[in-house]
Design goal:
Elements lengths: L9 H10 L1 H14 L1 H12 L6 H16 L4 H19 L5 H8 L5 H33 L3 H6 L2 H25 L3 H29 L9 H8 L2 H6 L3 E4 L2 E4 L7 H25 L15 H23 L4 H24 L9 H19 L15 E12 L20 H16 L8 E10 L4 E9 L2 H11 L2 H7 L1 H4 L10 E8 L14 H17 L2 H6 L4 E9 L2 H10 L10 E11 L4 H11 L11 E10 L5 E2 L5 E2 L4 E7 L2 H8 L3 E2 H7 L15 E7 L4 E5 L7 H7 L4
Antiparallel strand pairs: 1-2, 3-4, 4-5, 6-7, 7-8, 9-12, 9-14, 10-11, 13-15, 14-15
Helix pairs in contact: 1-7, 2-5, 2-7, 3-4, 3-7, 5-7, 5-9, 7-9, 9-10, 9-13, 10-11, 10-14, 14-15, 17-18, 21-24
Length: 731
């Protein structure tokens, strides 16, 4: 019996469930085949195998089970999304039939009760089936002895996320079903609603990249927004993982997973309220129409036209070598064709193709004005340059210079972090940015690419990427920034890399020095925490005394690799059982991060500490450990492009090669050479502009006696030009 004032009708709910018993069966089968059944099959498969080390068997079973019962299971997510859409459309599809709509609306039940019963029916069909099958999967895991897999899968987060995202997708599907008068149009609208906002963000970014010369997206704001604006995309890509022993979730960024779930719970509530509002105001005679509310037709049509116009334009733009002409043609074709298609769908009549053509002209004019504002930068996006007094901090990333005779990249920590507050650094960054603004529209031969993140006082951020003509004045400004104490202490890896700490009794930091010749194998290893900290402290002191002149003329003589190592029981068992994870000291395996740091001749205290605590001294490349060197000369003409390893490409590009085995020539090539491994570890202190081979486009590859090889680079003024001239006299 139902209370007179109740907003719910149990009899109507039972009748709705009875009519949709097929959906209950589909839910039971769907979740059974994605939760308990795969878990049981995995347990049986692993139990049938022989393992030399029981711990390995347990860990493999744990990983398999966790992949099915945890939030990372794509099968369970796919079933949940499909059932949410199917139930919403099936239960509310009577609105698409005039006869069925008249019948239901003639019942002595208010619109509010009818909506509540129908809406609840979808949840009752899916959620009990999911929860039961999820619990059965947990019981199978516990019975197999893998209770830790259940704990590691975080049941509360997993079940909570699946329920919340079900309601988010279900409410969106219900709203689309109520909004439409045709089932096929409902499915089209759901797909468009679920993905068009994300697509619009992506296309907006492509427009900015096309028309704005200084556009940049630091911190992946656009990609994060693309995820957030679609419950389907966010749900599918919400994947848990472990980082340094802590549970993390992909696509959440800095947001707590619970805050993210609460946000989508709010989205589900708002979509449900919207569906309820549309349901109560929907007229019965709208059954069979494409869109049940005439007032929504024009906004929806022009939203579709906008997204499709930009999408088609972007496709044409990329197909025809970034042609602006084809971009604008794509805008026109995409917008007009989408308008025609929408009119046909609205009227279910091909003859309606040219209806409302006047509104299309108005829309086209507005769209053209918006595109013109971007194309001609009416808003001044590229010319934006804040005043020093308005800034709280800046972040900067220098990407080397491009052009004839040079290459490379000084790539410090990303400018996503605007943490440079020193007024001198801010002024230097603004001076470089001002030059970038002044050079807009020019095409200099050699350029520097600089990305800046501005953090304003009182809040707010702005990011720009400038292409600056390269000159010596710029080098002085760059040196002022990157050799400042503030920059080094905040960005240099010797200062940012964190030792694991003494409180983690089973985790240590191991230091391994590498020489030039043994750049692929450590020359020694030291896991004594006091000695590792002493070397790191000496390294920090030497870095703060390093000068721009030394960076240009000195080559790294050692590189240090810091590794966080552990002796945890499980990882030790894996190492002993697989017999492959060796080379890190007895009982150790790599646990988390590592960091390469270059050591220069001027680092006197660091070199002394390394020799004292590891016995390693620099070993340079000599003809005793290098059997030959290949010289490559890349001839080039105009309209060729240049890359960081001095390879010239183009229709007229050619290559000449010489093999050097003469000992004297090898000595000249190796005397001041720097290897790939050393350059990759140089980071903040590496002056990329200095390590080039002159104007002719040489590339040198040394072959070690141990079978390894490496490219060779040289500090400023130390490239062995006499060897190049000997083997390529015509140049």
């Amino acid at each position: 019996m139902t209370l007179k004032n109740s907003s719910f009708n149990a009899g109507l709910l039972r009748e709705t469930l009875r009519r949709n018993i097929w959906a209950v069966t589909l839910a039971v089968l769907g979740f059974a085949f994605t939760l308990p059944l795969p878990v049981a099959m995995s347990v049986q498969t692993i139990n049938n195998r022989d393992y030399a080390v029981p711990m390995i068997k347990h860990l493999e079973m744990k990983e398999k089970i966790q992949g099915f019962i945890g939030l990372q299971s794509p099968l369970a997510k796919a079933v949940m999304i499909v059932l949410a859409v199917v139930c919403a459309v099936a239960i509310f599809s009577y609105l698409h039939s005039r006869q069925r709509t008249d019948f239901y609306h003639s019942l002595p039940v208010s619109r509010g009760k009818l909506f509540a019963c129908n809406y609840a029916a979808g949840a009752v069909i899916v959620l009990p089936c999911y929860i039961v099958m999820q619990l059965v999967a947990y019981l199978i895991a516990l019975a197999s002895g893998c209770g830790d897999a259940v704990a590691a899968s975080q049941p509360l987060v997993t079940i909570g996320a699946n329920l919340i995202f079900f309601f988010a997708v279900y409410a969106l599907a219900v709203a689309c079903t109520v909004l439409c008068g045709n089932t096929i149009v409902t499915l089209l609208l759901f797909g468009w609603s679920a993905f068009s906002l994300s697509a619009a963000v992506m296309l907006w970014e492509t427009l900015c990249m096309t028309f704005y010369q200084t556009y940049t997206d630091l911190a992946g704001f656009s990609s994060n927004l693309m995820m957030r604006l679609s419950p389907v995309i966010q749900y599918l890509f919400l994947i848990p993982y472990q980082y340094q022993g802590k549970a993390m979730y992909a696509t959440t960024g800095d947001t707590s997973v619970w805050l993210l779930l609460l946000a989508y719970l709010a989205v589900a509530v708002l979509l449900t309220a919207l569906a309820f509002f549309l349901f109560k105001r929907r007229k019965s005679e709208c059954a069979g129409m494409a869109i049940a509310f005439n007032g929504l037709r024009a906004p929806l049509k022009f939203w579709c036209c906008t997204v499709m116009a930009v999408g088609v334009g972007w496709i044409f733009y990329n197909i025809v070598d970034n042609s602006k002409l084809w971009l604008f043609f794509g805008f026109l074709a995409g917008g007009v064709l989408t308008h025609f298609l929408m009119e046909i769908i609205y009227s279910f009549d091909f003859k309606a193709i040219f209806r409302h053509w006047k509104s299309l002209l108005v829309y086209g004019a507005v769209f053209a004005v918006c595109i013109a504002c971007m194309a001609f930068d009416i808003t001044g996006y590229d010319r934006y340059l804040p005043a020093a007094g308005d800034l709280q901090a800046v972040g900067v990333e220098y990407r080397g210079y491009e052009g004839d005779g040079g290459g490379g990249a000084w790539q410090p920590a990303t400018s996503e972090y605007a943490d440079l507050t020193d007024p001198e650094n801010i002024d230097a960054v603004l001076s470089l940015a001002r030059k970038g603004v002044d050079s807009l529209g020019t095409e200099p031969d050699r350029t520097v690419r600089l990305t800046v993140n501005y953090l304003k006082k009182g809040g707010g951020e702005a990011s720009r990427t400038y292409v600056i003509p390269h000159d010596e004045a710029d080098d002085r400004l760059f040196d002022q920034i990157r050799f400042s104490e503030e920059y080094i202490t905040k960005r240099a890896p010797a200062f940012t890399y964190a030792l694991t700490g003494r409180d983690e009794v089973d985790v240590y930091t191991s230091l391994q020095p590498y020489t030039s010749y043994n750049n692929a194998n450590a020359a020694a290893s030291n896991s004594n925490q006091d000695e590792v900290e002493a070397i790191l402290e000496a390294l920090r002191k030497d870095m703060l005394q390093f000068t721009p002149g030394q960076a240009r003329t000195e080559a790294p003589v050692l590189r240090l690799v810091f590794l966080n190592l552990t002796t945890r029981e499980e990882e030790l068992a894996i190492r002993n059982g697989m017999e492959a994870m060796t080379g890190y000291g007895d009982g150790y395996t790599i646990r988390s991060t590592s960091q390469d740091i270059a050591v220069y001749p001027s680092y006197k205290e660091t070199l002394a500490c390394i020799e004292r605590y590891t016995g390693v001294t620099p070993v340079r490349l000599t003809p005793d450990n290098v059997i030959s060197a290949e010289l490559h000369l890349y001839n080039h003409e105009d309209d060729t492009t240049y890359s960081g390893q001095m390879r010239y490409q183009g229709k007229n590009a050619g290559e000449e090669t010489a093999n050097v085995t003469d000992r004297a020539d090898l000595e000249a090539l190796l005397q001041d050479a720097v290897t790939d491994a050393e350059l990759s570890s140089a980071d903040v202190m590496f002056d990329a502009d200095a390590y080039v081979l002159g104007e002719k486009g040489f590339e040198i590859i040394a072959q070690f006696k141990n079978g390894q090889g490496t490219h060779l680079y040289y500090p400023e003024g130390k490239a062995p030009e006499q060897v190049f001239a000997k083997y390529f006299p015509q140049q």
